[in-house]
């Protein structure tokens, strides 16, 4: 999908589009009246049937038939429908996408990416996926990790309240939380230390040499394995994690 200011200009734009697309598609699939749900989302994005039909490569009557319940949308049609709506909004600046993302609790740029693994990874496999090394090797290498959340640590500090940050960590149980933009590693582990819910694994990306010994000590105190990723860039880190998750790319992802 094409980029512009706002949501699509953020480091986490791929994830925002992916997350919102899944929420819209899920709303349509689970609706007792899928046609009404299709119409609701088309009208939310302010798109006329004719314009949406052109974007999808179908006739206007096809869109009308689905919205009026004369046809039942399948998974492929819903996917094309959602992609077209988001693409059209992104071309117009992404304003509705950004408002929707914020309403769903996804501040743009904070969560860079999030996925579930097709099969759980061991700690050793995760370390390999992030091009990293386990800084506290006494933790069992067979500990299972079921997914990951990549967070821009600087944006998280600026954009999230304490409650929002703890809520974010609360969604990483049995998952790895990956902090990017880290200098020494102390701040992420302090945040984990005071959070009532702990992630299964913490990965830090940014330090190229010394990691603060306090970060390692806090990891040991909390019983949370700490991995240092030596990926050359956030892009390389995310690409490697996505490959480990099964290679699924975000809708319209770069």
Structure notes:
Helix 1 (13-30) runs antiparallel to helix 2, helix 3 crosses helix 4 and helix 10 (186-194) packs parallel to helix 11. With 254 residues, the chain is of the alpha/beta class. Helices cover 49% and strands 15% of the residues. The chain has a six-stranded mixed sheet with strand order 1-3-4-5-6-2. It is built from twelve helices and six strands. It has helices at residues 13-30, 34-44, 49-56, 60-67, 75-91, 95-103, 123-129, 153-159, 162-170, 186-194, 213-222, 234-245; strands at 111-122, 132-134, 144-152, 176-180, 201-205, 226-229. The chain folds into two domains: 6-103, 434 Repressor (Amino-terminal Domain) (Orthogonal Bundle), CATH 1.10.260; 111-245, Udp-n-acetylmuramoylalanyl-d-glutamate--2,6- Diaminopimelate Ligase, Chain: A, domain 1. Residues 1-12 and 248-254 have low confidence and may be disordered. Helix 11 (213-222) links the parallel strand 5 and strand 6 (226-229). It is elongated, with a radius of gyration of 20 Å.
The name CATH uses for the topology of the largest domain is Udp-n-acetylmuramoylalanyl-d-glutamate--2,6- Diaminopimelate Ligase, Chain: A, domain 1
CATH architecture of the largest domain: 3-Layer(aba) Sandwich
Overall radius of gyration: 20 Å
Shape: elongated
Kindly provide the name of the CATH class of the largest domain.
Alpha Beta
């Amino acid at each position: 999908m094409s980029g512009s200011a706002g949501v699509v200009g953020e480091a986490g734009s791929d994830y925002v589009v992916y997350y919102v697309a899944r929420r819209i598609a899920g709303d349509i699939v689970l609706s007792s009246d899928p046609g009404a749900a299709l119409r609701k989302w088309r009208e939310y994005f302010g798109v006329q049937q004719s314009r949406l039909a052109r974007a999808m490569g179908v006739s206007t009557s096809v869109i009308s038939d689905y919205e009026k319940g004369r046809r039942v949308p399948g998974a492929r049609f819903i996917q094309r429908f959602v992609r077209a709506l988001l693409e059209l909004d992104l071309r117009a600046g992404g304003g509705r996408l950004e408002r929707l993302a914020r309403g769903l609790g996804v501040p743009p740029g904070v969560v860079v990416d999030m996925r579930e693994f097709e099969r759980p990874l061991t700690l050793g496999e995760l370390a390999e996926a992030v091009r990293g090394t386990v800084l506290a090797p006494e933790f069992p290498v067979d500990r299972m990790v079921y997914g990951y959340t990549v967070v821009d640590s600087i944006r998280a500090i600026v954009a999230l309240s304490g409650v929002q940050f703890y809520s974010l960590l609360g969604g990483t149980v049995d998952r790895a939380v990956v902090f990017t933009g880290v200098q020494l590693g102390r701040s992420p582990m302090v945040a984990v230390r005071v959070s009532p819910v702990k992630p299964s694994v913490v990965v830090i990306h940014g330090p190229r040499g010394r990691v603060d010994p306090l970060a390692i000590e806090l990891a040991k105190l909390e019983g949370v394995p700490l991995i240092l990723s030596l990926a050359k860039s956030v892009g390389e880190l995310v690409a490697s994690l996505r490959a480990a998750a099964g290679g699924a790319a975000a809708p319209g992802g770069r």
